[in-house]
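Quick one:
INPUT:
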């Protein structure tokens, strides 16, 4: 498809066939190429008043990869974990098209601003969506069909940002917001105000930071005398270590002794994760900085920086709002010459500047309708095999709304694409945040439930990831299992492989027998199993008072029997019902985890 003068003739030569059409009264034209076998690369000649030659065309399956940051998360973020995969990623039959971020509240766009198809190789793959790449890799290895990934994802985006104006009519509050943001003067005013507030805050914190103002020596200078500084155990939040909850800048220094064998070699400094941003110096030399709290800190250290004997590491931490500091259960190490120095433990620290919290900006691209108009609408004429979706974290404040919002999105996209009920495969939220020792309510559990209920929409499937999250990172690094589980779903839903076990156990029904509740499941595969031990974990049970207590559970005849000896008349069961149900271990024997569920409402 393309544009030409009204009535102009267009001829396409492709795969030894010729196709003709003329441009319509709107100067648009389109030719449908059908009955094409997967393969390539091929060339195409397009002739009108000019002549265009296209090369390296593949015919295969194109999947839309959408959602928020966990779909955005690129292979570059997980390169340490998957170094061998990246090194052997050269495959021109797997490609990604990265859609540039764009929002529009007034007009569904017809064209993208930019973008190219990039083949998988050790260089390009660093920009691929990690989840999408493992999904494509798994499918290609099985079917040998070229796989194209259209990466149309935006970090932090809620579901309503991806709905069309038609779909938003069922959600009046979101529609009202979208209509308000149609006013470009209003939007530009917000942008300018946010920019001014941000610039003033960052300029002020720099002006106040004593680490740059203390006489003639900055606090990262290796000869600066920090012997009077207090000490703190790292990793930790500084409010937990006696400094209190404050925003601004705190400087940290640590002296380490390095043997000669570690000098003169490539070195890497691993500083876990730091909230919110950091600048790192070794022996007075700047080695790296990250201004966002989530990426793992991995800094390359130039060969001439480390020296034999005493070395000084300085970290300037700037916290904008909330708790500041170093995230636990992450690597804090200096690696060089095949040796590792553990950097956890006592560090000296000093307060550099105290600030009021930085006001949160208005993330305009997250507002309802914007991303649909700017990023989805231009794709609607492109034939796709289906969608993989990784999103939900930004909707956890209103999990009950998500029960309607998410199915509405699926229906909306299918209607707008006009390609039938194409496969829509999605990822259920992973486990995240601190473990609660007692059964409790959880918005994250309710959001997972909303995702589970969406399986009632035709031609959908869900990849359960309740076992591969990280309590201290909303972006778990294990994206291989996510992609592979989505690929299993695709084999069933998109490719019609009825023999594949594509899902873990899903709650079906319950039956009360005395003081026990017996739970039945679908998708049990070859049978139910307790991973890691014979004892099932993270089941809770309640009586008529609806107060839940931890329960015993066992597998019997491919059902789960649940009870608590102190509850004689149980009425409901919950499984893995928590932000982070650590240890939940109900699987099928094919190794796929059961979805969290509750039998009560």
């Amino acid at each position: 498809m393309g544009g030409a003068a009204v009535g102009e003739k267009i001829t396409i030569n492709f795969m030894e066939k010729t196709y003709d059409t003329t441009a319509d009264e709107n100067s648009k034209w389109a030719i449908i190429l059908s009955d094409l076998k997967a393969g390539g690369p091929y060339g195409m000649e397009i002739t009108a008043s000019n002549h265009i030659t296209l090369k390296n065309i593949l015919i295969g399956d194109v999947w839309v990869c959408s959602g928020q940051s966990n779909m955005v998360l690129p292979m570059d973020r997980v390169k340490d974990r998957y170094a061998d995969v990246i090194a052997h990623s050269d495959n021109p039959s797997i490609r990604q098209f990265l859609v540039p971020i764009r929002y529009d509240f007034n007009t569904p766009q017809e064209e993208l601003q930019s973008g190219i198809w990039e083949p998988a190789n050790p260089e390009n793959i660093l920009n691929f969506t990690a989840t999408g790449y493992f999904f494509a890799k798994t499918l290609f290895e099985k079917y040998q069909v070229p796989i194209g990934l259209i990466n149309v994802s935006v970090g932090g985006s809620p579901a309503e940002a991806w709905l069309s104006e038609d779909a938003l009519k069922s959600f009046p509050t979101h529609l009202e917001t979208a209509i308000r943001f149609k006013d470009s003067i209003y939007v530009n005013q917000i942008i300018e105000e946010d920019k001014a507030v941000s610039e003033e805050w960052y300029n002020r914190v720099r002006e106040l930071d004593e680490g740059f103002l203390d006489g003639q020596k900055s606090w990262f200078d290796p000869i600066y005398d920090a012997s009077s500084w207090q000490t703190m155990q790292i990793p930790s939040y500084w409010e937990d270590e006696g400094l209190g909850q404050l925003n601004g800048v705190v400087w940290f220094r640590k002296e380490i002794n390095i043997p000669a064998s570690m000098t003169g070699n490539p070195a890497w400094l691993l500083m876990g994760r730091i909230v919110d941003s950091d600048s790192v110096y070794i022996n007075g030399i700047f080695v790296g900085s990250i201004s966002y709290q989530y990426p793992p800190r991995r800094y390359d250290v130039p060969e001439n920086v480390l020296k034999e004997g005493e070395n000084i590491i300085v970290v300037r931490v700037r916290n904008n709002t909330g708790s500041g500091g170093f995230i636990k259960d992450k690597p804090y190490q200096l690696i060089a010459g095949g040796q590792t120095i553990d950097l956890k433990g006592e560090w000296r620290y000093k307060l550099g500047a105290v600030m009021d919290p930085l006001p949160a900006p208005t993330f305009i691209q997250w507002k309802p309708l914007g991303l649909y108009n700017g990023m989805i609408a231009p794709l609607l004429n492109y034939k796709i095999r289906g969608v993989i979706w990784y999103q939900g974290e930004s909707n956890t404040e209103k999990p009950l709304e998500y029960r309607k919002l998410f199915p509405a999105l699926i229906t909306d996209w299918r209607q707008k694409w006009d390609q039938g009920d194409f496969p829509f495969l999605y990822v259920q939220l992973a486990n995240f945040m601190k473990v609660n020792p007692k059964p409790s309510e959880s918005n994250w559990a309710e959001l997972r439930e909303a995702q589970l209920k969406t399986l009632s929409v035709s031609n959908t499937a869900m990849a359960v990831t309740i076992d591969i999250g990280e309590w201290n990172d909303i972006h778990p690094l294990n994206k291989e299992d996510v992609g592979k589980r989505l690929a299993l779903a695709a084999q069933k839903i998109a490719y019609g492989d009825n023999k594949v076990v594509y899902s873990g156990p899903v709650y079906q029904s319950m039956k009360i027998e005395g003081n026990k509740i017996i739970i039945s499941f679908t998708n049990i595969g070859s049978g139910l199993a307790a991973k890691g031990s014979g004892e099932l974990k993270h089941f809770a049970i309640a009586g008529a008072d609806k107060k839940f207590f931890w329960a015993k559970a066992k597998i019997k005849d491919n059902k789960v029997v649940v009870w608590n000896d102190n509850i004689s008349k149980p009425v409901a069961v919950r499984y893995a019902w928590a932000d982070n149900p650590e240890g939940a271990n109900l699987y099928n024997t094919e190794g796929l985890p059961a979805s969290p569920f509750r039998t009560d409402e």
